[in-house]
Write a structure and sequence with these properties.
Layout (H helix, E strand, L loop, with lengths): L2 H52 L8 E7 L2 E11 L5 E9 L9 E8 L2
Antiparallel strand pairs: 1-2, 2-3, 3-4
């Protein structure tokens, strides 16, 4: 092997290594976002369960609060939404990872029947 062949082979391995490192870094970043979305979804589920357990007709105003999960504070809010059937009301829950974030990390809609 000549020195030129060795240098070309090293360049190819260096490029392959950089590509592999970039791919792994992107996967780790995506995993962190997925983890945050999963926890935010659980917070939204918890709020829907709480609303159902209170056995009250959901009001149309926003209710807000915070919940601690996995060492992180999530900011939730929910409100009732009128439906075509007066015996049902939709409930929209939004969860954000920052108090003033524009886009929610998770959103859920469920329906509650009037007792």
């Amino acid at each position: 092997m000549t020195l030129l062949e060795v240098m070309v082979a090293m360049a190819i391995f260096a490029i392959a290594g950089l590509t592999l490192m970039k791919t792994v870094t992107e996967q780790v970043s995506a995993l962190a976002v997925l983890e945050e979305k999963t926890f935010a979804g659980w917070v939204a589920d918890n709020q829907l369960v709480t609303i159902r357990l209170t056995d009250k007709w959901p009001n149309l105003n926003w209710s807000e609060g915070t919940e601690e999960m996995a060492g992180h504070t999530y900011y939730w809010r929910w409100h009732g939404v009128e439906t075509a059937d007066p015996q049902f009301r939709a409930v929209d829950v939004e969860v954000r990872d920052e108090e003033k974030a524009e886009d929610p990390r998770a959103t859920l809609r469920s329906y509650i029947a009037k007792n």
